[in-house]
Amino acid sequence: xxxxxxxxxxxxxxxxxxxxxxxxxxxxxxxxxxxxxxxxxxxxxxxxxxxxxxxxxxxxxxxxxxxxxxxxxxxxxxxxxxxxxxxxxxxxxxxxxxxxxxxxxxxxxxx
Amino acid sequence: xxxxxxxxxxxxxxxxxxxxxxxxxxxxxxxxxxxxxxxxxxxxxxxxxxxxxxxxxxxxxxxxxxxxxxxxxxxxxxxxxxxxxxxxxxxxxxxxxxxxxxxxxxxxxxxxxxxxxxxxxxxxxxxxxxxxxxxxxxxxxxxxxxxxxxxxxxxxxxxxxxxxxxxxxxxxxxxxxxxxxxxxxxxxxxxxxxxxxxxxxxxxxxxxxxxxxxxxxxxxxxxxxxxxxxxxxxxxxxxxxxxxxxxxxxxxxxxxxxxxxxxxxxxxxxxxxxxxxxxxxxxxxxxxxxxxxxxxxxxxxxxxxxxxxxxxxxxxxxxxxxxxxxxxxxxxxxxxxxxxxxxxxxxxxxxxxxxxxxxxxxxxxxxxxxxxxxxxxxxxxxxxxxxxxxxxxxxxxxxxxxxxxxxxxxxxxxxxxxxxxxxxxxxxxxxxxxxxxxxxxxxxxxxxxxxxxxxxxxxxxxxxxxxxxxxxxxxxxxxxxxxxxxxxxxxxxxxxxxxxxxxxxxxxxxxxxxxxxxxxxxxxxxxxxxxxxxxxxxxxxx
Lengths: 111, 542
Hints:
The complex is a heterodimer of chains A (111) and B (542).
Chain A: E1 5-8, E2 15-22, E3 35-42, E4 48-53, E5 65-68, E6 80-89, E7 95-97, E8 102-107
Parallel strand pairs in A: 1-8
Antiparallel strand pairs in A: 2-5, 3-4, 3-6, 6-7, 6-8
Chain B: H1 2-19, H2 27-40, H3 45-58, E1 70-77, H4 83-95, H5 97-166, H6 170-196, H7 201-220, H8 222-235, H9 241-253, H10 255-271, H11 278-306, H12 308-332, H13 336-345, H14 349-390, H15 393-399, H16 403-466, H17 470-513, E2 517-520, E3 538-541
Antiparallel strand pairs in B: 2-3
Helix pairs in contact in B: 1-2, 1-3, 5-6, 5-8, 5-14, 6-7, 6-14, 6-16, 7-8, 7-9, 7-14, 7-16, 8-10, 8-14, 9-10, 10-11, 10-17, 11-12, 11-17, 12-17, 13-17, 14-16, 15-16, 16-17
């Protein structure tokens, strides 16, 4: 997993693609009918600033890939460190949250 | 503590041994260990340390795993172009509404196209209607240009005559003639209409006649005639206009019959590309009239099926009907109007408009004749002016005077000239108008005649009905006329029905002939008394 994703305030890209696999078998997680969501918060804080659903292509949902497209304002945060949590809800309703967190760093933009 | 541990270690070891657990535990073994702990009553935290001691003492190792966790590899980049669109795309997938919308658009377009076609059809029809008007106008325009010149020629002739008589006031005469001419010019326009005949100089004269006859026929065949004109125009064949004029002639000659036929022809031409609905309209008219005739004959067909005798009776009833019609027609020969009503009954409202056109045609034909009459009158007047010239004799009286007398003589002539002009003008005007009016009445007469002819044709139809109705046939000759126009085909159909009925009757007769039985020509004793014929004879027949 990448160490830290760096963004500038107000950015809406680049995107982040998450490839989910089963730890045991290494098989891709079938996201058909499921969802993947990023919960974003400031590092060291408990308040979730926003939650953003990842796009799962229904045609390739079995590949376990989900793409996060930042929405306008998502990264319009104060400069600092942030972290994200990927939460997967399978079609069966089983909720699994990745233990490892995504790390983000945002700096102020010039203009 | 050691003893306690030892006991428990022994217990755990025993459990492990029983379970076959040796060194490294597996995931499944973990459950077994938990079960062993439960069995041993080790549930508290202290037991954990005890377990650790056991593991250490026994040199046991264990690894605990979380089953089938999800791991993720994360990449940064632009994996989806136009994510927003993709989002939308997702929505599309779910709804498919967008695609459907697209298709709908196409469909709507195609629908519109269909509408367009219909629209074109309607346009064609509309055009056909207007076209008729336009064509007529065109015809007028064409004919007028030519005829105008001809009218001018007449005007010239009038002038010549006047100049000869007046000798002097040629200019004045011209002025006085002009008013006449202006009046004639209007009729000349009518003449032009006759010329429509499509610019056929030679055909102009016949056109005038045709116009009269046509108008008459139109009363009966208002619908059909109108359709013909419209159809011709629809064709949009400028060159075809001439043939149309020819058709008009033919129609006029035998209006009832030709009208229907002409309508069919024109319809065919229209069918070439234009609104197919136009043809059907004409066909409908025919079908309607024919359909009625069929119903009458159908009753006859039923009669044969019942039995021969009944058939005859039925026929008689029909004959009665026909006779009734005859009675009606006899007085109603002019009532051809009634026939015309039938034709209208076909339901051609559009053809009613044609009627107005027919009226126009009447005016045209009349105008032509009026013009000629006017010219003649003028000529006669001019001769009277010559008499006025004799007035110069008064000059002799002046001859006794000096040169100044010559001037006086001139004055005298002027007076005489004026008189001659006034007479000519008034007379000419009156006559021309009167002729025009009478011309209208003549046209109406012509119509009646045309109808009578048409009736004669329908006689053939009656023959079809026939087969035994000789009496009625004669009568129906006049009546069927109008019906005949559209019923001619239908009548043939009726003949077919009659044949069918006859065939069925024959079949019934045949079985009746198939009799069987025995003949005994012996009453001498019981027939069974002898083994075979002894006296007399017997036979069987079939």
